[in-house]
Amino acid sequence: MSKKIEMMKAKKQKAKENHVVCHQKFQARIQEAEDSMQAQHLIIEALVEEKDGLLQTIQGLQEANGAPAPFDDEWEEEPEEKPEEEEIEKIRLGEGEIDDE
After folding, report:
1. Between 67 and which of 6, 62, 76, 95 could a Cys-Cys bridge form, CB atoms 3.0 to 4.6 Å apart?
2. What is the pTM of this model?
């Protein structure tokens, strides 16, 4: 009986150790994901700043050349063109003939 108890205690201890290891791995994955997200956020911020700088450069060059600004705050949306649907000729049953030519 004591051997069985010792085996159960050992099994319980092993399960705890496995749980700790899994928890540590999970925490490491979470930290890695958070680090990746933060790096992506910094890249996005840098790209937005670069875009803003490029837009200012473009506007400055166009103003220097007397051209209208390429981007203004008022967007004119073009109406969407809806393609005309092809009308399908309705043929009643028995009226259509198959031409093998």
Report:
1. 62
2. 0.49
